[in-house]
Amino acid sequence: QVQLVESGGGLVQAGGSLRLSCAASGRTFSNYAMGWFRQAPGKEREFVAAIRWSDGRTIYTDSVKGRFTISRDNAKNTAYLQMNSLKLEDTAVYYCAADRTQLRAGIPTGQADFGSWGQGTQVTVSS
Description:
- By secondary structure, the chain is mainly beta.
- It contains no helices and 11 strands.
- The strands form 2 sheets. Strands 2, 4, 5, 6, 9, 10 and 11 form a 7-stranded mixed β-sheet that branches.
- It is globular and about 40 Å long.
- The N and C termini lie far apart (40 Å).
- The relative contact order is 0.31.
């Protein structure tokens, strides 16, 4: 099991930027894909982005493409989500998650693919 701690959330005006961090501990970070999900008030948790364990390949949900960037620093056991051009509809609690499968061939996107979750960090975008 891996422990995940998110940070970097906060209040930002529309059009602004935030960078979320996810610090991991407890197992070999570099062997697992990482993902970000979010849950807005009254809505189900949804996939945002994921990054493969090996070559840094990424995948995004359509609504954040071109605005958000997921990355990882294996030396620091940390994943990041850079969020630019934030919109009101990006307001949510953001969760990072670690793949439950080591050395996965593809990039996981389903919640069931991830076995460890952080506690979440609030991102609020104001007008």
